[in-house]
Amino acid sequence: MAENDESLSHLEYWDERYSKIDGETPTHEWFRSFSHLEHFFQKILFQSPGHRPDDNPLILHLGSGDSVIPAEFDSRGYSRQVCVDFSTKVIEAMTERYKSRPGIKWEQMDVRDMAGIADKSIGVAFDKGTLDAMIHSSPWSPPRDVKENTGRYLREVYRVLEDSGVFLYITFRQPHFIRPLLNPDGIWNLDLEVLGGKEGSFDYYGWVIRKASYQEQKSDGVYNVSGVEDASGMENARTSSNLRTQAL
Ligand SMILES: C[S@@+](CC[C@H](N)C(=O)[O-])C[C@H]1O[C@@H](n2cnc3c(N)ncnc32)[C@H](O)[C@@H]1O
């Protein structure tokens, strides 16, 4: 994604891109595949009380595109998923592609106005690259349309999320630029997983976001999952990936 590409915030760009979808071949998986994120999902969802498949959370994929992540979740037992995207072209293509998976619904919707989704109905909201697509121009001083679009979107996510729900946001963007856009009103508690790239590739980030009003928050301090030393020099070898969590 070109960081300064304003066209990515417009429907026309995505409709044009998704008009090239054909048959069973996804046109893209935006910057991280399911396998890259599996350790993160294990920790935050698959083994996390309240968000496990047996807990049957309603999962909302925000700007789902033609990602295979909803199908991967379905295969792991999540049977209540709604995927929304403002591109009718991709919603039609995905509805056809995944018609054999009744646990995934595809709906054309603008994430800045999700009137079709009830207040506090969503257990897990997931964004990979959608907030990013709304951001362009200077990261030091985002233009007004960026602040307006991201603000409307995030207030909608807050509205539809259960009080105990979790909002996961995967991005390549640097945390110091994202934090002010994510939380201008202080309505969220933010945790950050640094999802290290392998062999010199760039880091990317998994934000784990909960309502600040919800008291049963986990986490403080910094800890590592996996083969990486934490600040105390202790090693935690629970998984083999390079994940680091930081309460912000
Ligand atoms: C960078 S792509 C990511 C797609 C998918 N999440 C993935 O990881 O492959 C951004 C997606 O967000 C969608 N999108 C952008 N702005 C949107 C909006 N305001 N409402 C709904 N969908 C939007 C685009 O159509 C596109 O599918």
TrEMBL record:
<dbReference type="GO" id="GO:0008757">
    <property type="term" value="F:S-adenosylmethionine-dependent methyltransferase activity"/>
</dbReference>
<keyword id="KW-0808">Transferase</keyword>
<feature type="domain" description="Methyltransferase type 11">
    <location>
        <begin position="60"/>
        <end position="168"/>
    </location>
</feature>
<comment type="similarity">
    <text>Belongs to the methyltransferase superfamily.</text>
</comment>
<dbReference type="InterPro" id="IPR013216">
    <property type="entry name" value="Methyltransf_11"/>
</dbReference>
<dbReference type="InterPro" id="IPR051419">
    <property type="entry name" value="Lys/N-term_MeTrsfase_sf"/>
</dbReference>
<keyword id="KW-0489">Methyltransferase</keyword>
<protein>
    <recommendedName>
        <fullName>Methyltransferase type 11 domain-containing protein</fullName>
    </recommendedName>
</protein>
<dbReference type="InterPro" id="IPR029063">
    <property type="entry name" value="SAM-dependent_MTases_sf"/>
</dbReference>
<dbReference type="Pfam" id="PF08241">
    <property type="entry name" value="Methyltransf_11"/>
</dbReference>
<dbReference type="GO" id="GO:0032259">
    <property type="term" value="P:methylation"/>
</dbReference>
